TrEMBL record:
Gene Ontology annotations of biological process type: phosphorelay signal transduction system; regulation of DNA-templated transcription
Alphabetical list of Pfam families matching this protein: GerE (PF00196), Response_reg (PF00072)
InterPro entries, per database record: CheY-like_superfamily, NreC/VraR/RcsB-like_REC, Sig_transdc_resp-reg_C-effctor, Sig_transdc_resp-reg_receiver, Tscrpt_reg_LuxR_C, WalR-like
4-aspartylphosphate, modified sites: 56
Single GO molecular function: DNA binding
Domain HTH luxR-type: 138-203
The organism of origin for this protein: Rhizobium sophorae
Entry protein name: Response regulator transcription factor
Limits of the Response regulatory domain: 5-120
Amino acid sequence: MTAITIAIVDDHPLFREGVSRTLSEIDDFVIVGEGESADDATTLATSHRPDVLVLDVSMPGGGIDAISDILARSPQTKVLMLTASEDVDSVVAALRRGAAGYIVKGIGSRGLAEAIRTVVGGSRYISPSMRAKVEKTLLDRPASLTPRETEVIELVAGGLTNKQIARRLDLQEKTIKHHMTEILSKLGATNRTEAAIRWRQGA
């Protein structure tokens, strides 16, 4: 069984410790670090490169604002936002920055474990109570791609792998992976094929 490494960043110590303790009791989950601010989150991403970083939205420094820095330092990390709010605009903003999932505090241990496994598996996870509204908002308000992201998705649509795209654009493969995270979020797609299809449809 391959271990899933997890870091937790929340400015409420009792809540953070409770989540950490709960997850550490699951056989294949390994807690590699904890923090309480956006700075802590980027430090954990750099030093531990966890599979999943559970990130509070309203912590010091702002959880949503920290997403891009986290992914720039550790592109393979899945950022799972955790919040008490069900504000759809915050969810959409987080997903468009590259978050892999968004869960509401109060979720049970089983639900949290499911969310973690879902994002590690490469799919997006949104709390069921918010899913329909968020998906509708993403479709109603498509985000525009940057010129570089446009280059990347055009090459993806042409069948190139991340490694081939990196060579073509003279960039590092991890940079291409970061661009792909942004593209998937902006296009509301869960994988490369879906993103390419949506890009072609909207182009």
